[in-house]
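Customer escalation, tier 2.

The customer says the design service returned an amino acid string that "doesn't look like it belongs to this structure." They asked us to rerun it and document both sides in this ticket. The original structure tokens are below, unchanged.
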């Protein structure tokens, strides 16, 4: 009975782990996702928030977690979010370079666009690369400050 219970527990845990989607979809068509977000932003009168990151990056995962929990309402009310995987800094570089290479000093990196693809903000100095230390309040403050500077 104990072996059966242990086997069922292992099966359940492995199923749960396997069904959790990664924060950054490594096989996504980033340009198509960005184009779709720009269309959504025009329809919803929001800005586009591009977050460049990778699943191996603990700060990227922490930022993603904050966007899904404590800061979900802030992000959803202001932005159409696009997460772009940068791999080992060898993927989707054309998109990063189009906005001034915000990943140069670390990830996660953020770009904020108007719905017409006009650049409002791009992190240049690794501003979010310590998201784990920033915490939810610091992350919220970071984006609120940008929004106040770029209404």
């Amino acid at each position: 009975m104990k072996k059966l219970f242990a086997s069922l527990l292992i099966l359940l845990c492995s199923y749960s782990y396997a069904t959790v989607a990664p924060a950054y979809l490594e096989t996504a068509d980033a340009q198509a996702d960005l184009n779709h977000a720009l269309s959504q932003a025009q329809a919803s009168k929001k800005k586009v928030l591009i977050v460049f990151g990778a699943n191996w990056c603990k700060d990227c995962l922490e930022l993603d977690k904050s966007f899904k929990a404590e800061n979900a309402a802030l992000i959803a009310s202001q932005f159409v979010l696009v997460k772009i995987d940068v791999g080992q800094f060898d993927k989707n570089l054309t998109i990063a370079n189009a906005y001034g290479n915000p990943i140069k000093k670390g990830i996660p990196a953020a770009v904020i666009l108007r719905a017409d693809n006009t650049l409002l903000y791009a992190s240049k100095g690794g501003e979010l690369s310590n998201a784990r230390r920033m915490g939810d309040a610091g992350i919220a403050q970071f984006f609120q400050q940008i929004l106040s500077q770029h209404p």
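Tier 2 assessment: The sequence is consistent with the input. The mean pLDDT is 89. Residues 50 and 97 are 13 Å apart (CA to CA). Sent an explanation to the customer and offered a walkthrough call.
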